[in-house]
Fold this sequence. Notes:
single chain; alpha/beta; Helicase, Ruva Protein, domain 3; 5 domains; 5-stranded parallel β-sheet; about 10% strand
Amino acid sequence: MAYTVLARKYRSLTFDDVVGQDPIAKTLKNAIETGRVAHAYLFSGTRGVGKTTMARILAKALNCLKFDEPTITPCCKCDSCLSINIGEDIDVIEIDGASNNRVDEIRELRENAIYRPARARYKIYIIDEVHMLTTQAFNALLKTLEEPPEHVKFIFATTEPNKVIATIQSRCQRFDFANINPKQVAGQLKSILKKEKIKYEDDLVLALAKMANGSMRDGLSLLDRLISTGMTPLSLQLLEDFLGRPNAEKVQRLVEAMGDADAAGTLTATENLINTGLGEAQIVDALTEQMRDLLVIASAGADTDLLILTASQKEKAVELAQKFDAASLIYNITALEKLRWAIKNSDTPRALLDASLLRFALSEHFLNVDQLLARASGGVAAPVKKKLSVERKPVATASAPAEETVSRTPAAAPPAPAPTAPPAEPPVSAPTTMPEDLAEAWPDILSALTETLGKVTISLLHSSTPKALADDVLTIGFPATGKMQKEMCESNGRSDQIAAALSDYLGRPVRVRFEVAAPIEAVAADGKTNAQKRYELLSDPAVKAVIVGLDATVTGIEED
């Protein structure tokens, strides 16, 4: 006897058997019980969610020979029910819209519709992929569809309802089939594995259900492929070896390297995934899924039902989520989606992948044009940053609490709107002479604080020099070219962390303020400095539209 694939063998036979489409099943049952069955239905939804199955169940409910009228519980044993199950009933005509889409074939259907069914109550036409019909074919069907003979019912199924013309849709009752929840898919897969008496690991079922992407048929097809390997028990390793599922641990290592700003580790982890046979696009998809899980944890907590993870996977994901904030995860996910399409059209996908992942890993070093413009105008730009892994140590002091926010020292900048509520600078008396031992020991101090503040923050401070110490306020200066380093030291709570670390090191409470040496601006013939010209150019609406539209970063401006 020929083997029957699981998707056919375990196809739902009654309304109660259908998985994940309860609202639609209940509505159709109520319509049958109240005698309000429409003459035409349009079932829409992605592949494998039960559209054709529901159409066959509805046909059996209307034509079951065991009952004298339509029923919500067809017997599934009479000649009509058995024939409908395999798509061979003479009164239930199943048509493939992709291969029967011409106007002549629809005209033939319309001519045959006037004849009464051979043995059942209704002649039912099930047209799958109805959106493939030509416009002429749709128009040929319009009149019959609007006023069909009383013995005719139409059931249309489509994955692209937007391609079904409005005049057809207006003559049908439309039902949108939802993607099936992974937990429901997993439950059905477990039930089938028990019936088939096949041993499996619990982690496998959940991973398989996620790979099904909301499609029950896809889930059953994937399970069929695993069973055909002949290996038991079915495990996650089989899923990775035979179905190309990315290794979860290796994906997590890659995310961890990016979260730690480890450039070398990021490239190594990417290479390890490539060596398993994955393509660049598959790695992007795996990263997107992992980042989404971290975003859910960061936004809704680890106990939310939105996560489809095993206990061990959830524990690791919670650990990884601590390395990112929600803003950086949102940025990463949107950037990965753009990267996915770029990789498919690139001749050098590996280089593009490596460069993009390094950008994520080193995102602390990047500021986009929107942030610069927002800061120049006194606004607050949403940070695209990873969380700093170091927690600030509070320092108790009677005169000034360590957590007090220190304002920025404005550097030379082009005219800009005044900020709405500028933070007050800490009072600083006339600067005292900087202790020579502190100035000389500054490189050693930075080296000693590397573990506390992290490599990123220390790298920002390497070009700085302590300038003055007065009233427990330490002024740290940057050269004229260090404006970006100064702003990054003031952002994301980093100034408080630097102050706390220095307080611990010096044994006395200190606050910090940053300043940049004023640049010597060349004044052009029109009386405008280069900074003013740059600001005016970047403030131009047309330039801003291009920068935002292309997600670009300005690296230089040349004047003709």
